[in-house]
Design goal:
about 140 residues; 4 helices; 7 strands
Length: about 140
């Protein structure tokens, strides 16, 4: 398996297709909320590829002095394999290369809190609703 930055239109389209399957089809996120203005402007997209198939994806956007991880999705066939952890570690290694970033933040689905805690993220604030799914903000401080 290889994790790369999705720099071409076809790579990003493959990432969007996986996100559609995971968020819209599996989790019933309204289709109009799945894509946003960041996708084609300021988001840095990553994909995990195995046997020429995109099996994982995530993106990072700048939010002040934080790198915000969003749209983390793993194909159903690859869940429980460590792919999600590898994808997140890749993003955690990439984030410090973004000028002026001092933390990584994300909105974690409540069910995924233990996954992110094992990676060193700390939950903060109250539970909030995102696309009908309860989430909490999580933060990972970068060493300066």
């Amino acid at each position: 398996m290889e994790i790369i930055q999705a720099t071409t239109k076809s790579q990003r389209e493959a990432a969007y297709q996986l996100r559609y399957e995971v968020f819209v089809e599996e989790q019933n996120v309204p289709v109009e909320l799945e894509r946003d203005e960041h996708d084609e402007t300021d988001a840095v997209h990553f994909i995990a590829i195995q046997a020429d198939n995109v099996v994982g994806t995530a993106r990072i956007i700048r939010k002040g002095t934080a790198a915000k991880v969003q749209r983390v999705a793993v194909a159903k066939s690859h869940r429980g394999t460590g792919l999600g952890r590898s994808l997140m570690r890749h993003l955690m290694e990439f984030a410090p290369s973004m000028e002026g970033i001092d933390a990584i933040v994300l909105g974690a689905q409540i069910d995924a809190l233990p996954f992110y805690e094992k990676l060193g993220f700390v939950a903060e604030g109250d539970v909030f609703d995102d696309a009908g799914i309860p989430h909490r903000t999580m933060r990972y401080a970068l060493e300066s």
